[in-house]
Amino acid sequence: MKRTIRLATTGALILASVKAFAGATPSPPGSEAYIIWPSDGTVITGGKLWVRMGLRNMGVCPKGVNVANTGHHHLLIDSDLPPMDQEIPSDRQHLHFGAGETDARVELPPGKHTLQLLLGDYNHVPHNPPVYSKKITIIVK
């Protein structure tokens, strides 16, 4: 019985140590995500548009591929940045481009909308420090 308790305790300590040392994937200095198109203030007619995504000092690679200094884009629509220590949500306001896409066709309803890019690592978690674009505003007529 004592041996079992020791093993369980040791196992718990090992798991706690792994969690303590686990952290966000690092991003290199000077990394920057940016929206190539549309630009801030663009007026779109019809609601369908292509969003072109840019990245400086890092590479783009699909989700699940763990390669240093790479990640994949997430487009935040009408949303603030999510918590930086958790997986980026996947819903209508947080679009994932896990195949490594650098442009995407998006359809938005009429009105004012904000767009922002956030780079995620192989597990959809923001890098450390996080790599994200300036938030832009567009109008759909």
- Radius of gyration using CA atoms only: 19 Å
Following the backbone from N to C, one meets helices and strands in this order, namely: HEEEEEEEEE
- Low-pLDDT stretches are 1-23
Q: What is the fourth-level CATH superfamily?
A: Immunoglobulins
Distance between the termini: 71 Å
Tally of separate helices: 1
According to CATH, what is the class?
Mainly Beta
Determine the strand fraction and express it as a percent band: 35-45%
CATH topology: Immunoglobulin-like
Instruction: Identify the CATH architecture.
Output: Sandwich
Structural class category:
alpha+beta
Major β-sheet profile? 6 strands, mixed
Instruction: State the helicity in percent bands.
Output: 10-25%
Total strands = 9
Descriptive account of the structure:
With 141 residues, this protein is an alpha+beta fold. It has one domain: Immunoglobulins (Immunoglobulin-like, Sandwich). 14% of the residues lie in helices and 35% in strands. The chain has one helix at 2-21, and strands at residues 32-37, 43-44, 48-56, 59-60, 70-77, 94-96, 103-107, 111-120, 136-140. The strands form two sheets. Strands 2, 4, 5, 6, 8 and 9 form a six-stranded mixed beta sheet that branches. A three-stranded antiparallel beta sheet has the order 1-3-7, with no helix packed on it. The longest helix is centred in the first third of the chain and has 20 residues, at 2-21. The radius of gyration is 19 Å and the shape is elongated.
